[in-house]
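hiii, so i know i said id send this last week but things got crazy w the move. better late than never?? heres the sequnce for the chain we talked about at the cafe, plus the structure i predicted for it. fair warning i was half asleep when i ran it
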Amino acid sequence: MSIPQLLEEKIAAEGPISVADYMATCLYHPTLGYYMSRDPLGAEGDFITVPEMTQMFGELLGLWVADCWIKMGRPAPVQLVECGPGRGTLMLDVLRAISQVMPDLSKTLNVHLVEISPHLKAKQQATLVAHGNISWHTSLADVDLSQPTVLLANELLDALPVHQYFLKNGQYFERLVTTACSGFEFTYATEPTDTGHDGLLSDAPATITIYPAGDALLADIRTRLNGYALFVDYGGSGHADTLQAQRHHKMVDPLAYAGESDLTTHVDFGHVHAILGTGASTAMDMGPFLLALGLASRATILMERAPDDETRAQIATVTQKLVDPNKMGSHFKCLACRSSGLDIPAGFLD
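okay and structure toks below
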């Protein structure tokens, strides 16, 4: 059995399915799903994340975590939670930086990794084998966020299933996936749907995206968090159609390789801010955020220590990519939230 066969059987039995059902099956089916059955990262995979590009990203977030801990009054113990930890590379760099700049924090830190993929969990365990006090969970609900906590979520929200709707004559018709002569194609529901988002009607694009899975996660964090959270993701502001697929580091048709490509949507950070409420910062471009944390200084130090010109050039290239407003510097956004009574976290203005 394959993902396309599962989808064909489901559509034959139930009719066209929502985009959310399509994404959930392709990405998260317990045994066949894209994230559940492979390591999708790196040169041999389909995409690369910022932590896999450079150690500086995780090191700077380690400094950010340390600053949050100080602002929280140096509680002991304190939890460091990461949702969707990939191969564990980000956490490895974060923990190394903390051990170097704030050893007292290292001694009191309990790490919790939220990961549903058995393949990626195994990668994380291998990467972090030298570190103790690490617990794995398949759901954030299993982590007690009432304890003093700093939470990290890098490129998580963009991979959560979404619903999409077409706006016509003031009514929403859900975008669906059905079978075609060869593979799958998009269609639309014949009856309008109440999305609960009537506020979007005034200037909504033809196809809008709604984020129920992301909304539920963010609302849970907002309600239970005792501390700080940081979200880093690809996105901007608005509910437009940004469903995309990546395979072998190239963009492909989202319906062409069901279960064999990475499906994502751009994160609407204006909406994320609204869900998180008064404790949320205004989203920042990643470039200025990393520069505020000391990216330029860290890059200079690494280049001074580099063994050869080739390594120095690589560090310079990746640093420029991280801050370039025409590349990752503005395409990625950073947004923090904090529980009541805590000061503004490092790198943010509010």
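btw The longest strand covers residues 227-236. thought thatd interest u
miss u guys!!
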